[in-house]
Automatic annotation (TrEMBL):
It comes from the Bacteria. This is Cbb3-type cytochrome c oxidase subunit 3. Keywords: Membrane, Transmembrane, Transmembrane helix. The chain crosses the membrane at residues 14-31. It comes from Roseovarius phycicola. InterPro entries: Cbb3-typ_cyt_oxidase_comp.
Amino acid sequence: METYTFLRAFADSWMLLALFTFFVGVVIWVMRPGATNAYDSVSRIPFRHENAPVSDIGPASEED
């Protein structure tokens, strides 16, 4: 049971702090000023072919 107790104490203290720090770091990374252009272009991917749809080139049909 000592291993469980140690891991439980570690998860309740230092791992919680590490994961919170990682989360805050990711939020700061996403909200940085230079990221606007990159995320703006990625956010428009679903609407890229809105005016001129892609041709219907599906998987090859199997004709017997």
